[in-house]
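Researcher: Sequence of Sec-independent protein translocase protein TatB follows. Predict its structure.
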Amino acid sequence: MIDFGFDKLALIGAVALIVIGPERLPRVARTVGHLIGKAQRYVSDVKAEVSRSIELEELKKMKTEMETAARDVGQAVQQEVDGANQAFAQTWSDLGDNSIGGDLGSHAYEGNSFGATAYKRPKKNWRLKRGATPQWYKQQLGVRRHAQSGAARVARYRPAGAALRRSTPP
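Model: Prediction complete. Tokens:
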């Protein structure tokens, strides 16, 4: 960059005072200051844009590297799973061919040959769970605590003045 010392700035100021004149010098100096400020902002914006584009390129490169690494890991895991499935299938077929105990091969897929019982879901008693909630909490949330017919619900939530108007004949 250009290096200006105090003596060079004083010389430029004196020449500008003589050439431009004392009346227009402040306005010209203000305009030159604005232009220099705009130029500095433009240069800083360009520098920031260049750094952002460089960072973006680095991020894209890192993304592609991560995707290839993840794909490689996925392929390796899939190969291991396939190998394990093949080994299991081979062992299963060998076990079925030998038919240990005579009756194992025919009942291998039923699940009862080894004494295992079928899975039964645990019972979920929702009445017990609802009964464990405190009454004040249910009231605060507006949970109905007992069954009520539609007509009873309408009668319960009808405004007080509406009941008097309906009871009197027209």
